[in-house]
Design brief:
The complex is a heterodimer. By secondary structure, chain A is of the alpha+beta class. Chain A has five helices and five strands; from the N terminus they run ββαβββαααα. In chain A, strands 2-1-5-3-4 form a five-stranded mixed beta sheet, with helices on both faces. The chains are: A alpha+beta, B alpha+beta.
Chain lengths: 152, 754
C-alpha cells in the first residue's frame, strides 16, 4: 500500500492503495466515482474511459502510480451540471438503452471533439470504434457526436 | 369498463409500504431533457398521498409513478409510467418515476422478459391510472358538492364547468386518498390519448450521462466488503479443493471459502440455471484486491459425475427432472453429432397432408441445412450483486429480470423466510435474457450470510463469459418438393439443437402449405443454456427466411411476392389447426417494408435482401441493403416495418429497433462461442468479436403499422429477421449463400475484409 496524490475533476484527492491498482478501481471503490464503468478489464470495450491530461484513456489499464501528477477528468467532472455539449446531445438524441457503456462513449466523444471540433463521419467512426455498445446505439451515438460538434 | 385488481387496494399498499422502509431511488423525469428552467423544476411536495400501489400525488400536484418491472434497456421505466400517466390524465412534466422494489403484494408481474412488459402491463397500468383519476374526481365532487359525472380532467387539473370550480390534482390528493377504491373504472378512448403515442425521453437520461450511481455494480454501503468468485474452468468440471493459504500474502484479503448454491433435494425454479453450483468466494477490502487473489488462488478441479435435479415448470407446468451428462465437450464433436441427427428421423411435431407422398412424386427437391453456434450474452455490465444478510433478514440489490423466480431459491438457500428478504431492483447494464437467471443473487447472498456483513460480488468479464447460460447451438434442415413447373408441393423442416430444439410446431410457414412436416431433435449437453433475445426464433427466422429466399429464386418468384402468396393462403384457406400467427398482420409488415424501401428500385449499387418474422406477439419485416466497398461488405441501410399494435413511446421504439438490428447484424457476422474439452474458446472481448461503430449500418429506418390494437412488445421481435435479410442481401452481393453463422469467416475466405 502507498499514498497517492491525485488531481481528479479539479480536486486534490489522496488514496492509500496498492500501486498496481488501476485508476478504474481507485475511482469506483476508493473515491466513490462510479460513473466510470468496468466492462472488460483488458482495454477492449471502452466503458472505463476517462481523460488523462485531456486524452481519452482506458482507466482499467492505468495504474494509480502512473496517474500522479496528471489531470484526470471523469464523467462526473465533464461538466458541473450535466450540460457539456456532448451530454446535452446525448439527451437530445435519447441515445441510451441500458446506459451502461454511455459514460465511456461520452468521454471518448468529448476527447475527440476537444482535439477535432469538426470531425468527418469517418473520423467519428474511427474514434468511437473502441467503445462497445451491446445495445447497439451506434447510430444515435454518431448523430449525437455531430450535434455536439455543432454546439461546441 | 375495466375491473379493478385487488392488488390496487390502498390498505394493502399502506401496510406493505411500512415494511418497505425507504431506500427507493428517485429519478426526476423533468430533469431528463436539457437543463430545466426554474419554472420547469417542480418542488418536492411536503407530503405524498398514496392513491394506489403505482401512484402517489403531492399536495403541490407532483406525481410519483412507480415503474413495476426491472429496466434492462428497453425503456419500460419510461413507457410503463407513460401508460399510468395517460389514464391518470396528468401532465408528463409533473411526473417523477421511481423504480419499484420487488413487491408481489403491490405489483402484478415484475418480470422483464419475453417482450411482455408493455403487453401484459397495458391493462393493469391503465386501470391503476384510471382508478386514481376516478378517486380524484370523487374527491372534487365531494368537496364541491357536484355530481362526479360533471367533472372533467385535463393535464392534472379538475374542472366543474357548471360552477366554474377548478383545482389541480394536488389540492384534492389528501381527500382522494380517503375515498374508497372504486371497483370499476372507465378507461380512455384511444383517440383521446395524449401521452401514449408521443415520444418521451428516457427518465434516467440525466443520471446516465452524468455518471450517477444507477446500476447494481454502483451500489455501496458503509462497511461493505468486496467479493470475487472462482468457478470451474470447464463445463463438466467441479470443485475438488482450494488452498486458502495460497492468497494469504495478498493485501486486503479477508476470507476464502466455498459456497453451494442449492440445498440437497431443492426443486429449482425455472430460471435457476447455475452452471457451477459450487464455487469459491474470495472476500476482501476492494475489488482489485479480490481480483488479484483470484489469479493467485490455488484450486483443484475434478471431473463432475452425471447429475440430476428437479426443475419447476414454467407458468405452472409440471416440474421436470434434468440430467446433466458428464464429460468435457468439444465443438467439433458437437458438429459431428448434429450431422448424425440431421440424418435420423426426429420427433414429429406437426404434419399436414401427405408430405412423404409429395416428396416421392417431386420433380425437384431443394434441401439446405443451416446452423448457428453457441452465443454468450455479454451484457456490458458483468454479473454482480449486492447483498446484506444478517440473522434472519436479507436485503439484495442487483440486476435481475426475474425477482419473482429467484426469491424462492434465496429463501431456501439462505434458510430465511421470503417475507424477510427484500429484493431491490437495480437498473441493469443489459439483460438480453441472461439476467432472468439470477444465481448471482444467491451467490452474493450466501457470501454475505457467511461473513454476516454487506458485500458486493462482481464477476470479471472472463467469469461472465465462461459461466454458461448461452444461446444454444442450433441446426435446421429445410426441404422443399417442387413439381416440374416449380410449384411447391411440400415443405419439410427438421430442426434441433444442443441441448434444445429451436422448432415451434405451429409457426409460419405451417398453415400455408398443404403438405407440411416438422420434426425436432435435441442432444444432451452439460453446457448450460438460457433465453437469449428471442429464444429459438433468433435462429429459426434465420434458417426459414434464408430458405424461403432460395426457394423463391428456384421458383422464379420475387421473394416478397412469394411470401405474400403463402400468407394469402394461410389467411384465406389455412392448412391445419393452431397456426399461431395472424397472416394478415404478417403480410401487412411485408407490404409496408416493400413500399417504404421501394423494394423493386434499390439505390444504385446496393444488394437487397428481405426477411420477415413473427414472434413475441409482434410482426416485423426487414430489408437490408449491402454494398461491397474496397472488398469490404458494408451494410448501407436497413428498413424495418413493425406491427406491435399501439406504439406507446415511438422514438424509444425506434431506438429499440435500431439496437436489435445492429445486435443481429453483429451476431450474424461475428457471434460465436466454441468449446475445447469443455473450455470456452473465448473469455473476453479481445477474442469474442462484438459489432462496433464501424460495422454498424449507415442508416436504419423503422416504420410502424398504424394500429389500434393493444400494444405488444419490441425488445425481441426486431432481432430475428435481420439475420436472413443480411444473408439474402449478401447472396445478392457475393453470389454465395450463407448457411452457417457466423458469416465473417466465410466472407474472409472469399477475400472480403471483415
Amino acid at each position: 500500500m502507498a499514498i497517492f496524490n491525485l488531481n481528479i475533476n479539479g480536486t486534490s484527492k489522496q488514496v492509500d492503495v496498492d500501486p498496481s491498482t488501476p485508476m478504474l478501481w481507485v475511482l469506483r471503490d476508493h473515491l466513490d466515482l462510479v460513473g466510470t464503468k468496468f466492462g472488460c478489464g483488458v482495454a477492449q470495450c471502452g466503458a472505463c474511459t476517462i481523460h488523462l491530461d485531456g486524452n481519452a484513456v482506458r482507466s482499467c489499464q492505468l495504474p494509480v502510480s502512473a496517474a500522479e501528477g496528471a489531470s484526470i477528468t471523469t464523467i462526473e467532472g465533464l461538466s458541473e451540471s450535466g450540460d457539456h455539449p456532448v451530454q446535452k446531445a446525448w439527451m437530445e438524441h435519447d441515445v441510451p438503452q441500458c446506459g451502461y457503456c454511455q459514460a465511456g462513449q461520452i468521454m471518448t466523444a468529448a476527447a475527440l471533439l476537444q482535439q477535432n471540433p469538426n470531425p468527418s463521419d469517418e473520423e467519428i467512426e474511427n474514434a468511437m470504434n473502441g467503445n462497445i455498445c451491446r445495445c447497439g446505439t451506434y447510430l444515435r451515438i454518431k448523430a449525437a457526436v455531430k450535434t455536439a460538434a455543432q454546439n461546441l | 369498463m375495466a375491473t379493478l385488481d385487488k392488488k390496487l387496494d390502498r390498505r394493502s399498499f399502506l401496510k406493505v409500504s411500512a415494511l418497505a422502509g425507504g431506500g427507493m431511488m428517485l429519478s426526476f423525469s423533468w430533469l431528463a431533457g436539457c437543463k430545466p428552467t426554474p419554472e420547469q423544476v417542480l418542488e418536492l411536495p411536503k407530503e405524498w398521498f398514496e392513491l394506489n400501489s403505482y401512484i402517489k400525488i403531492g399536495e403541490n400536484g407532483a406525481v410519483t409513478l412507480f415503474s413495476p418491472n426491472p429496466e434492462f434497456g428497453s425503456n419500460i421505466k419510461t413507457s410503463m409510467p407513460m401508460i399510468l400517466a395517460e389514464e391518470l390524465d396528468t401532465d408528463w412534466k409533473m411526473v417523477m418515476v421511481e423504480q419499484a422494489d420487488y413487491f408481489p403484494t403491490r405489483f402484478e408481474r415484475q418480470f422483464t422478459g419475453g417482450s411482455q412488459s408493455i403487453r401484459q402491463g397495458w391493462t393493469p397500468l391503465r386501470t391503476a391510472g384510471a382508478t386514481a383519476r376516478a378517486m380524484l374526481i370523487a374527491a372534487a365532487a365531494q368537496t364541491w358538492k357536484v355530481p362526479a359525472s360533471e367533472i372533467t380532467t385535463s393535464a392534472g387539473n379538475l374542472e366543474h364547468k357548471g360552477s366554474g370550480k377548478k383545482a389541480h390534482y394536488g389540492e384534492m390528493a389528501s381527500i382522494a386518498a380517503t375515498i374508497p377504491v372504486p371497483e370499476e373504472v372507465t378507461l380512455k378512448e384511444i383517440k383521446d390519448f395524449k401521452i401514449v403515442g408521443s415520444s418521451k425521453k428516457n427518465v434516467d437520461a440525466q443520471k446516465i450521462v452524468t455518471g450517477n450511481p444507477l446500476f447494481g455494480i454502483d451500489h455501496k454501503v458503509e462497511g461493505m466488503k468486496y467479493a470475487a468468485i472462482v468457478h470451474p474452468p470447464a463445463f463438466g468440471m467441479k470443485l475438488k479443493s482450494f488452498d486458502k493459504s495460497s492468497v494469504s500474502g495478498i493485501s486486503g484479503i479477508l476470507d476464502v471459502f466455498s459456497i453451494s448454491l442449492f440445498k440437497e433435494g431443492f426443486e429449482r425454479n425455472f430460471f435457476d440455471t447455475a452452471t457451477f453450483p459450487e464455487i469459491v468466494a474470495i472476500v476482501g477490502n476492494s475489488t482489485w484486491e479480490v481480483m488479484q487473489a483470484k489469479k493467485t488462488l490455488t484450486v483443484e478441479w475434478e471431473t463432475a459425475p452425471e447429475s440430476k435435479f428437479k426443475v419447476a415448470g414454467f407458468g405452472g407446468r409440471p416440474s421436470t427432472e434434468i440430467t446433466v451428462p458428464r464429460g468435457l465437450e468439444n465443438t467439433n464433436r458437437h458438429k459431428e453429432r448434429m450431422a448424425e441427427y440431421i440424418q435420423k428421423t426426429g420427433t414429429v411435431v406437426r404434419k399436414d397432408g401427405d408430405p412423404e407422398a409429395a416428396f416421392k412424386k417431386a420433380a425437384k427437391i431443394l434441401e439446405k441445412t443451416y446452423s448457428a453456434p453457441f452465443l454468450a450474452h455479454n451484457t456490458m455490465e458483468p454479473m454482480n450483486c449486492f447483498a446484506d444478510v444478517k440473522g434472519d433478514k436479507a436485503v439484495i440489490y442487483g440486476p435481475t429480470q426475474a425477482p419473482e423466480f429467484i426469491i424462492t431459491t434465496l429463501s431456501n438457500s439462505l434458510g430465511i423466510p421470503k417475507e424477510n428478504i427484500q429484493i431491490n431492483l437495480a437498473r441493469m447494464g443489459g439483460g438480453f435474457g441472461r439476467r432472468a437467471y439470477s444465481h448471482h443473487m444467491t451467490e452474493a447472498a450466501l457470501i454475505s450470510q457467511k461473513i454476516q456483513a454487506p458485500v458486493k460480488m462482481v464477476y470479471t468479464r472472463e467469469d461472465d463469459m465462461s459461466a454458461g447460460v448461452y444461446r444454444p447451438a442450433y441446426s435446421a434442415t429445410y426441404r422443399a418438393a417442387l413439381d416440374e413447373n416449380n410449384n411447391l408441393l411440400a415443405l419439410h423442416v427438421k430442426a434441433g439443437g444442443i441441448p434444445e430444439t429451436p422448432l415451434h410446431a405451429n409457426r409460419f410457414p405451417a398453415g400455408a402449405i398443404d403438405n407440411y412436416l416438422a420434426e425436432s431433435w435435441q442432444i444432451e449437453s452439460n453446457i448450460t443454456i438460457g433465453a437469449f433475445r428471442a429464444p429459438r426464433s433468433n435462429f429459426m427466422a434465420a434458417a426459414e427466411q434464408s430458405f424461403l429466399d432460395e426457394l423463391a429464386e428456384v421458383m422464379g418468384k420475387d421473394p416478397i411476392e412469394f411470401r405474400l402468396e403463402l400468407l394469402k393462403r394461410a389467411e384465406t384457406n389455412p392448412v391445419g389447426e393452431n397456426n399461431d400467427y395472424d397472416a394478415k398482420r404478417y403480410a401487412g409488415v411485408l407490404e409496408l417494408v416493400r413500399d417504404k424501401s421501394n423494394w423493386k428500385t434499390p439505390a444504385p449499387g446496393v444488394s437487397r435482401g428481405v426477411s420477415a418474422y413473427f414472434c413475441h406477439n409482434s410482426y416485423v419485416a426487414e430489408v437490408v441493403d449491402t454494398k461491397i466497398v474496397d472488398s469490404k461488405p458494408v451494410v448501407e441501410k436497413v428498413y424495418a416495418a413493425v406491427d406491435c399494435g399501439i406504439v406507446v413511446n415511438p422514438d424509444s421504439a425506434i431506438n429499440m429497433g435500431e439496437g436489435a438490428i445492429i445486435d443481429g447484424i453483429g451476431n450474424a457476422f461475428f457471434g460465436e462461442l466454441a468449446f475445447e474439452n469443455g473450455v470456452p474458446a473465448k473469455t473476453n472481448f479481445d477474442k469474442y468479436r462484438m459489432i462496433r461503430q464501424k460495422e454498424a449500418p449507415r442508416a436504419i429506418e423503422v416504420h410502424f403499422v398504424d394500429s389500434k390494437e393493444d400494444p405488444t412488445g419490441l425488445g425481441e421481435p426486431f432481432f430475428p429477421p435481420v439475420f436472413a435479410a443480411l444473408a439474402n442481401s449478401l447472396y445478392k452481393a457475393t453470389g454465395k449463400r450463407y448457411y452457417e453463422q457466423p458469416f465473417a469467416p466465410q466472407l474472409e475466405m472469399e477475400n472480403l475484409k471483415m
